[in-house]
Amino acid sequence: MKNKIWVGxxxxxxxxxxxxxxxxxxxxxxxxxxxxxxxxxxxxFITTTDVVDLIKQINDAEYLDKNAMYNDPVIRxxxxxxxxxxxKAEDNKN
Length: 94
What we know:
By secondary structure, the chain is an alpha+beta fold. The protein has five helices and three strands; from the N terminus they run αβββαααα.
């Protein structure tokens, strides 16, 4: 009985060590793993729905709120990786 408890604790700790320092991003049938800037459970798993929701929040936000959102480490990482792009900037390139 004690062995099962210790095995459970070890497995739980291994899962935390593997998942906590990374973002697991599944977007448009692509799966990528990116390091986190801070250890947290926030946005450990990011799906297409999460990205769409973040884009919607950014689009609906006021100017000052948008600037604050762009300083968020998760949004900054998604922008740097090209997952979230500035639509106006993309339109100007074409």
